[in-house]
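As promised in the previous annual report, we have extended the structural survey to additional targets. Below is the entry for Bifunctional diguanylate cyclase/phosphodiesterase.
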Amino acid sequence: MRTWHREKINAKLLRPIGAALVIMPATVKLIAAVVIVSLVLATAWLVYTMGGIRYSWSHLIYIPVVLGGFAFGIRGGILAGIASGLALGPFMPIDTLTGEMQTYLNWIYRLIFLCINGALVGALSHLYRRYLHKLEWLRTHHEGADVLNRSGLTQALDAKIRKTPKGITLIVSVIQLNAFLDIQNTFGSSFSTRLLAQIIERTKQIVPPRSLLALIQDDRLAIVTDDVESRQLALARIEGIFDESYIVDGVPIHVDASVGAAHFPDHAQTAEGLLQKACVAMYSASLSKSPSALYNIANDRTNKENLSLLGALPGAIARGELSVWYQAKVALSTNDVAGSEALVRWLHPQRGLITPGLFIPQVEETMLIDRVTRNVIATAFADAAAWRTAGYPQRVAVNISVRNLRDHGLLDAIDLNARRCGLMADDIELEITESAVMMDVDHGIRVISELRERGYRVAIDDFGVGHSSLAYLQKMRASALKIDQMFIRTLAVDPNNQKIVRAILLLARSLGLETVAEGIEDPDSLSLLREWGCDYGQGYAIHRPAPEPEFRHFLSRIGELPLYRVKRS
Ligand code: C2E
Ligand code: MG
Ligand code: MG
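The corresponding structure token record, generated without further manual editing, is:
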């Protein structure tokens, strides 16, 4: 029977009766036994008072016999048959009025007949019960692999969670067998089934006795263990399953896996929640090409709050809840405010001010980022034009995300807004992160070249953490490198960062690129950067991002302020 069909019958028809039959608790059994005995006695009394065995009332005796077989199987059926046979036994007259008694042979025949009936019903009930057991097993287990399936694991894990005392951690690990489907397509499904059986066998050997093991997808296993060993060790043991190749039909197969883990109660409190978080961790392990990862809420773009933010964003754009803040960039040699970076903010009616780190990463994975970027471009260019009119000519920098690089209309939108606001191309800078360019280097280089051809400035943002190769850097034709904050924030006290930053400055100079240091948080780092010839600086030590009116006020007072001591504006 096909699985869905079986499931349908099971759910609609059999499960309610089946559950009662299969899981018949002791109290129900006792009640059933009392009912059967009472029925036997009541039938005997009824038969006697209604005139004797000759009359049709005596057929009621089949009810306790059938019930006995149904509830207690073959043995129960035979016992109920004997009891009923005895109740209508030699002392029960054929006719109470005439007092005519039955022959011994007659009641022995009846007794045997009732026993056979009880046994038959019992046998049928036994088969039915086994069938229900099998259905129940199939519902919770993977038939081929003989381990729990997803639904069985969820059920068992929820039960385990209920029984887990406070202070005990459960570790839910999800193992994704990378390229397993390729193996299946190449070698066939019976080969991959045998491979899977070996993987499961090895996995069984490393899981402690009270653990749960399940095959939750064709190429995904899950393990639930108690906090009995160190969490790292648990992951290391799982990774160890794949250290050695598997031999299937004499063919050595290396299986690569990504493992993600989530903890109860820290990361989620339900089986479904824990599995979902472990899968998120597994995806981040796979993205970062590391063998395993523990769930980290900061990397979870699927968490409910983040997803609901994403859903609310189109409405927020329409209602004008997105605003643009500005952070000054200062020329370190002259102390002039050379420009500013436009940083989006969301003024959420319930959650207050939301910084981009909380929604931009999710938005970047959807087409919505195009709307956000165009929105920021329109606002930032208009503000820059207004500052210019007020006597503060400013270069403005807008962040461009990786998906924007695929937006065919982006360059025209930049041109259009620049023209509309009367800005020169040189007044506009686009910040593209190094990692965004490296995602599709050739395309990234093409977009940067086109922007440069149109006269715009392009800064490679967060430089130093995006694995770009020097060969590409030369081809990129960017105008500036923006050194990642990671190297700048602790510059004054970290000799390693000092070496890295000096090397980047040298590199940029030799490639003819301007340099911007972002994340300057203290005067000492600022002095070092100035001493080493870094062109521009940006950071809390100079100016914190501020809404437009505050930024304009900052610009208007710039002459009066002892520069770079202008902190919390
Ligand atoms: P980013 O482009 O590297 O921007 C610099 C971030 O560092 C800003 O965070 C800024 O407030 C923060 N920052 C500046 N100086 C300091 C400092 O001294 N110390 C520390 N700890 N942080 C400093 P913000 O505004 O939260 O933006 C975070 C990121 O969000 C940005 O990094 C950028 O990648 C992205 N982002 C911001 N606005 C937009 C936007 O309009 N479009 C796109 N695509 N991304 C944006
Ligand atoms: Mg930036
Ligand atoms: Mg940056």
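Residues 90 and 104 are 6 Å apart (CA to CA). The first strand starts at residue 93 and ends at 95. These points will be discussed at the next consortium meeting with the crystallography subgroup.
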